[in-house]
Write a structure and sequence with these properties.
Elements lengths: L1 H4 L12 H9 L20 E7 L6 E7 L4 E8 L2 H11 L5 E3 L2 H10 L1
Amino acid sequence: MEQLNAYRFLPIDWDMTPEEAVTMYLEWGNNWRKGERSPVRSKHDESYYFVVNTWEEKPRISLLRRNSEHVEELVNLAVPKSLEENVRKEMGNLRGVHPITPEIRQWLEQQM
């Protein structure tokens, strides 16, 4: 997967969820509650993380770069057929943007 290989040196936050990203970057000052991450101090602070998007009929995996001003989609991939059942099992028919599953993370790490 050449597309992912180009991003292999980024500091991917494998544990970042869409909800945590909103808390950190869009609700400044609210991320101290867990103490797991350093607070965002400026627009130069950023995170790179993957999400699973289930808004469309076929789920997609996106690599995002987020700071306090915007989010940029760096990569958008179809979930491999072998992992589609895993996504359905984890997320059901719930449409939205979700954290990646452990199986998807493993696949992504292999591709990178």
